[in-house]
Amino acid sequence: MKVLITGTAGFIGAAVAEQLLARGDEVIGVDNVNDYYDVQLKQDRLTRLLQYDKFTDVRLSLEDAPALEQLFKREQPQRAINLAAQAGVRYSLQNPGAYIQSNVSGFMNILENCRLDWNIWCTHQAVRCMALIPACRFQYTTTSIIRLACMRQPKKLTS
Prior knowledge:
- The chain has a single domain, classed as Rossmann fold (3-Layer(aba) Sandwich), CATH 3.40.50.
- Helix 1 packs parallel to helix 2 and helix 3 runs parallel beside helix 5.
- The chain is α/β, with parallel strands linked by helices and 159 residues long.
- It has a six-stranded parallel beta sheet with strand order 3-2-1-4-5-6, sandwiched between helices.
């Protein structure tokens, strides 16, 4: 299966991508690798993912609707998992516009591209739902479920 995952430079996105790659899926990883926190940490996660032949690293901001649309048309993913988000509660109080652009407008752009091809099943921050509800076209859950799923993995996941 070809899966587009956003936020692959983050802890959760990298962990989800690695699990899908390990089971043989093709992953298109999308991240803008911003400098909100340690870029080297993000690069290290992406380097680990680039060891898989079926991983493609795409540097893209979800707010860039035309570029995201081109990516969806070119790659034609069968599933989309949106794990990208602007992090940091304090920063949200200082710069709420950054959160609206990334977390709301960016997510809307993902949904819009999924809407254009209803064969794409889109989820926002969901991991195990792909196996549990494969017929769903949209599933919304929280990062708490993802953290729990990652913690239950037999292999230790590092930051």
